[in-house]
Amino acid sequence: MIVIRAYQESDWPAIERIHDSARKIELSHAGLDEAFLPLRIAAQRENLLDYPGLFVAEQDGEVVGFSACTEEELAWLYVAPEQMRKGVGGCLCRHMFAAFPQICVLEVLKGNEPARIFYEGLGFRVSALETGQMPGNEAYTVEAYVMRRESGKKEN
User: Fold this and answer.
1) Residues 103-118: pLDDT tens digits?
2) pTM
3) Among 91, 90, 96, 98, which Cα is nearest to 118's?
4) How many Å apart are CA 16 and CA 121, to the nearest integer?
């Protein structure tokens, strides 16, 4: 059973391990392997701990994923690679949507088709393709799908 709860400081080693392994997969899909930054740097540059919604997914007492959001944006979602495609991401999203029903936007790196397809299954649709600097690692220019959903919409 997957349990979603608020992040605690003691969760840091687990989310660091999850981010650092899953982020490499995400960047590889987008052809941006060299843009990787470990969580200890990315979290500081992108103010991860300041998000109003910062949650972890636990299974059998082990943290297997985490997410962060504002009232309107799903900003971070990472699942341990060995737990991908087992419902962890969906549980985290459903929890965020319940806590913040106005979440209506997110961004997915172009090329990360598994993520785009996952979010489409939750009711998001690509509304634009934007080019800009990678948040937290502005040395890299990236293309990202801007995905939107009707806030408060029930996902599948």
Assistant:
1) 999 999 999 999 999 9
2) 0.94
3) 90
4) 27
